[in-house]
Amino acid sequence: MALDDIARESWATRVGFILAAVGSAVGLGNIWRFPFQVGQEGGAAFLLIYLFFILLVGLPAMLVEFSIGRRAHLNPVGALREYGGDAWKYVGALFMCIAFLIMSYYSVVAGWVVRYFFGSFTGAYLEDPEGYFLEIAVGIDALLFHAIFMVAVIVIVALGVQRGIELAVKGMVPALIVLLVGLAVYAATLPGAGAAYAYYLSPDVGVLAEDWRSIVPAAAGQAFFTLSLGMGIMITYASYIAEDQNLAEDGVMIIGFDTGLAILAGFVAFPILFAAGIGPADPGAGAIFIALAGGFGEIAFGQLLGLAFFFAFSLGALTSAISLTEVVVSYAIDEHGLERTRATLAIGGGMFLLGAPVTIDLVMVDLYDILAAEILLVTGSVLMMILVSWIDPGKALDELSKGIGDLGTLGDAWIWLVRVPVLLVLLVSLGLAVVGYVEFLTGPFAEFLGG
Ligand code: PFF
């Protein structure tokens, strides 16, 4: 069954839509990528800019996607064509490529999570958290779990059991909250906690002044990645919402859940990393895995809690991965008339192959991730915002007002916010991201290639 069929019935309830959107938003971005970025970009200075991006850019951008989607009742390619004219379908096509790329490495990292889940049965990671991560994150182990995760996604998307998402989210989000709160309380008792909080929560203006060129694009990329913005997922989901629903309220709610979970993950990761003397930046992509494994090794019932945690975390990764894969599959079905099972196998197989090189070395995660999050997602959103704010704001304003009533000056404020400050910040951020990526390619990546 296509997303269309099920979505059309289930989104009839407001909760169904919110849960699906939260399911897409809450995933590796919150628990893996967020602490990793905070660590890499110098702590609280990054957090500050990130929160700024979530509120000032994430919310308006989400409303842009919601209004395009609900207005057209179509997939992203069709919806953009409808909104802006024929040429805009190419932007929709760009979104499909972005989803394809993100899913390819998302599955590799999700494979790590699944591996930790299985490792929890034996407590494999408790002894040597850092060594364990380095062992399973690359090579044949990583490839195997990348395959396992991808197969699970293919089966679910091929069967079209979208209803499972609702169930998964209803269990996963509360479980993650409870477990993260518990872990954060434990982490607060550790000797390094004070220094960790200072690092995480009190922005150092010096760091900001010195590193803004990498902090700004990283924060923008993280905001789009974690909210599932910039490639049409929210267009798709909104295409099934009822006309009388208040899009702004829904957006605020989804963003609230997503941001809260990320911030909570930081309260777990940093005290544990500080206490272990590892330091926030050193473990890079392994930050949260090493911190959690270290934490579970120290507390009562750690192994059991680890099992529960990595189970909930796997579900979170799965619901996001389903949204990423489904958007490409339903496009192939709608626009090219492919049969669902075949389309899913071909697309999922392609995503697996594209992700396979990521298992060679951790530097490959950066190669894919910076390009996808900091450059492509931001580009996708910039294009949509130009369409809605400069080219044709009327349609979006009309759509947004449907569940709200007269928008008054707030509507104009929204359009003007997007038109000038938001676009300006994003363009600067995009320019910095491109410069940073070239530096990465000619620096660490060239070094890696040179052996
Ligand atoms: N928002 C998801 C996460 O934070 O893990 C990842 C993601 C899903 C990104 C869907 C982009 C997307 F379209």
Explain this structure to me?
This protein is about 80% helix and about 0% strand. The chain is mostly helical and about 450 residues long. It has one domain: Amino acid/polyamine transporter I, CATH 1.20.1740.10. Helix 6 (about 90-120) crosses helix 16, helix 15 crosses helix 16 (about 340-355) and helix 17 crosses helix 18 (about 395-400). The radius of gyration is 21 Å and the shape is globular. Bound molecules: 4-fluoro-L-phenylalanine (PFF). 4-fluoro-L-phenylalanine binds next to helix 2, helix 3, helix 11 and helix 15.
CATH class category name: Mainly Alpha
Give me the count of strands: 0
Low-confidence stretches: 1-10
Query: So what's the overall shape?
Result: globular
Helical amount among residues, as a percent range? over 70%
Radius of gyration: 21 Å
The secondary-structure element order is HHHHHHHHHHHHHHHHHHH
In short:
The chain is mainly alpha-helical and 451 residues long. The chain has 19 helices and no strands.
Secondary structure elements and pairings:
Blueprint: H1 3-10, H2 14-25, H3 28-40, H4 44-72, H5 76-84, H6 89-122, H7 129-136, H8 139-159, H9 163-188, H10 193-201, H11 205-226, H12 233-238, H13 247-275, H14 287-298, H15 302-336, H16 340-355, H17 363-391, H18 393-401, H19 409-450
The chain binds 4-fluoro-L-phenylalanine (PFF).
The site of 4-fluoro-L-phenylalanine has 15 residues, from helix 2, helix 3, helix 11 and helix 15.
